[in-house]
């Protein structure tokens, strides 16, 4: 129905793929697929209430409530990346401004590094941060803090027991999660008087979406 990064609007993807492949096709959101994979095979096996964000080019999101994926009326629930965190902030591909993913994503990471004079992006930036390069570390600190602030709003809204972070940017592990935990503790309503959910990197890494898509297709068959 709508894909902000592909400029697809009402694209009959399932029918077109089905015609080409000659097979039944199920279309699922990649973050929903990743969360389902984590529920079947990963960290979310025993959890019932989970928020997942996948940090890649943008932010993907998925929500599990009482052990079931919550996809919403249009199947579009969990588009956390387009929650407005900065009024009149940076323009976003979705057509709005100030969306969370403009401050917390692979693209944002490269931009924070570029603003500080580095030309590195992607895995090279992660490697530089692991080598204690101050600019690369600073970029992860910025993205990590934005991650924590955004998650504070999601935790306030859904009170999950577990928050999973997946996608390419999550490969940095604690470089990202440590500042995110601090920002989450700082910004969460009732902090100090409630259990703050565990914040972990997803188990299945870049394969989570593929594994979840296969599992969900098996369920639909
Ligand atoms: Zn947006």
Give a description of the structure:
This protein is an alpha/beta fold and 221 residues long. It has helices at 13-21, 30-41, 106-115, 122-130, 134-158, 174-187, 208-220, and strands at residues 2-3, 8-9, 50-55, 59-65, 68-69, 162-166, 198-201. The strands form 2 sheets. Strands 5-4-3-6-7 form a 5-stranded mixed β-sheet, with helices on both faces. β3 (50-55) and β4 form a beta hairpin. 40% of the residues are buried. The model has no long low-confidence stretch (mean pLDDT 93).
Per DSSP, the total helix count is 7
CATH topology: Nucleotidyltransferase, domain 5
Molecular shape: globular
Number of domains: 1
Question: Structural class of the helices, strands and pairings?
Answer: alpha/beta
- CATH C-level: Alpha Beta
Organism: Rhynchospora breviuscula
Protein name: Glucokinase
Question: Which short descriptors sum up this protein?
Answer:
5-stranded mixed β-sheet; ROK; 221 residues; alpha/beta; single chain; 7 helices; binds zinc ion; Nucleotidyltransferase, domain 5; Glucokinase; ATPase_NBD; ROK_cs
Brief characterization of the structure:
With 221 residues, the chain is of the alpha/beta class. The chain has helices at 13-21, 30-41, 106-115, 122-130, 134-158, 174-187, 208-220; strands at residues 2-3, 8-9, 50-55, 59-65, 68-69, 162-166, 198-201.
What is the fold's blueprint, element by element?
Layout: E1 2-3, E2 8-9, H1 13-21, H2 30-41, E3 50-55, E4 59-65, E5 68-69, H3 106-115, H4 122-130, H5 134-158, E6 162-166, H6 174-187, E7 198-201, H7 208-220
Parallel strand pairs: 3-6, 6-7
Antiparallel strand pairs: 1-2, 3-4, 4-5
Helix pairs in contact: 2-7, 3-5, 4-5, 5-6
Zinc ion binds at residues 82, 92, 94, 96, 99.
InterPro entries: ATPase_NBD (IPR043129), ROK (IPR000600), ROK_cs (IPR049874)
Protein name: Glucokinase
Pfam family, one: ROK
